[in-house]
Amino acid sequence: MREWVQVLGRHGIQALKTLGVAGIFLFQTLWGRPRLKTALPLWIAQIYAIGVLSLMIMIVSGLFIGMVLALQGYNILTRYGSEQALGQMVALTLLRELGPVVTALLFAGRAGSALTAEIGLMKATEQLASMEMIGVDPLHRIVAPRFWAGVLCMPLLALIFSSVGVLGAYWVGVDWLGVDSGSFWANMQDSVIFQNDVMNGIIKSGVFGIVVTWISLFQGYDCIPTAEGISRATTRTVVYASLAVLGLDFLLTAVMFGG
Amino acid sequence: MGMKNLELIVGAFILMGGMALAFLALEVSGLSHQSSEQTYRIHAHFDNVGGLTVRAKVTMAGVIIGRVADIHLDQKTFSAVVEMDILKSVNHISRDSTAAILTAGLLGEKYIGISQGADEELLTEDSWIEDTQPALVLEELIGKFLFNKLNTPSNTQH
After folding, report:
1. Is A81 in CB contact (< 8 Å) with chain B?
2. Average model confidence (pLDDT) for chain B?
3. Which of A160, A183, A195, A205 to probe the B interface (max B CBs under 10 A)?
């Protein structure tokens, strides 16, 4: 019994320690005035690597998720003779939940794991250490541009995801299944409120962007600099980021739409 | 890849995100529809608003002439107060018009239907509609119907 409590305590202290180190890591990354001249090109290059290269998977998954939602929703709604509510259902589902959450999960898999592996390999090949040797802070040079790029790209990708999903649902619902185009849009516009649904979706995806990028960068920076260590860190990134996204999503939903 | 190309692609990506936001704002949430047109505010007391929601339609002869802006409880009379924004272009509604809460289809959404009265005086900003009909609550109707059905046989035996 005593040993069991001791093990629990050790794990608790370990977890808190890691969280503290991760917090200091984030603070040090963001601290200090960035020199715009040098930071901007790095930032743009990272937006390309993180955002633009993730665009294709987001568009394809958004399209298919919108189409599947329309197909499933139509089958259920038509039973109650209210298939004109299809647009409303698809838009609210995408904007409030699926847009931010699925984008964040895909983002963790597509961009987050790449970030961890990249920084982990930099650490293993001692690029980060040699940077420090020549007086360049790797946190500012390597980590900060990636962090800001991730924070900017996540909401943009989620917005694109939701838009493409709505268009996919329109295509399946209106062109294929024969829902009236007018009532598809009118019902959607009646029920979607910009300030509530679209803005809360953006806030959600911004929070997810911060969390996923933070976890990915920290796992890479903190990993054991061996081949096995990098592979473990990459796995941890995807697992922790996904769990954090799903848990935070429940919290945010409860705050935004719960009461 | 040159820096120029990179900047171009990233710019296009950010632009695409902005376009997605504009699409969600204008097409999906219909932001332009509510803000572009001038409206005036009228109020009405209802005994029961049923499932009426904010942003529900206000119609006259089936044509949309406005939206429900706010619903709250009047603490003095314990009835619901519904605030409606009516389009400025619809400015010939007489003061004794009737407002009723109606249902689109059997299980559809609730909306407000206004039928024109005969008074010469017109509804203007901040005026009240006095004559209202509450929402038909289906459960109450069924309850009343069952109650009547159960009561009638016992009444006839006496």
Report:
1. yes
2. 82
3. A160
Pairing of strands B79-87, B131-133: unpaired
pLDDT recorded at residue A236: 93
Contact (Cβ atoms closer than 8 angstroms) between residue B85 and residue B39: yes
Q: Span A34-56, mean pLDDT?
A: 86
Report domain extents, chain A. Answer: 1-31, 36-258
d(CA B66, nearest CA chain A) in Å:
12
pLDDT at B107: 67
**Is the pLDDT score of A40 beyond 80?**
yes
- Provide, as residue numbers in chain B, all residues whose Cβ is less than 8 Å from the Cβ of A198: 21, 24-25, 28-29
Domain boundaries, chain B: 1-36, 38-138
Task: Count CB pairs under 8 A between chains A and B.
Answer: 86
Q: What is this model's ipTM?
A: 0.80
Mark which residues 57-116 of B lie under 8 Å from A by CB.
57, 105, 107-109
What pLDDT was estimated at residue A207?
A: 95
Q: For residue B102, which phi and psi values (nearest 5 degrees)?
A: -115, 170
Q: Which segment, A248-252, B2-6, B55-59, is predicted with the most confidence on average?
A: A248-252
Are B10 and A44 an interchain contact pair (Cβ–Cβ within 8 Å)?
A: yes
Query: Coil, strand or helix: which one is B105?
Result: coil
Task: Name the residue among B14, B16, B25 with its Cβ closest to that of A198.
Answer: B25
Task: Name chain B contacts of A194, Cβ cutoff 8 Å.
Answer: 24-25, 29, 31
CA-CA distance, B54 to B67, in Å (whole number)? 8
Averaged pLDDT of chain A? 90
Does pLDDT of B62 surpass 90?
no
Specify the higher pLDDT residue, A238 or B124: A238
B86-145: per-residue pLDDT in tens?
Answer: 888 888 888 888 898 888 776 677 888 998 888 888 888 888 888 888 887 778 888 888
User: Does A91 reach chain B within 8 Å, measured CB to CB?
Assistant: yes
Q: Which of B7, B20, B33 sits opposite A159 (nearest CB)?
A: B20
CA-based nearest residue in chain A for residue B111: A190
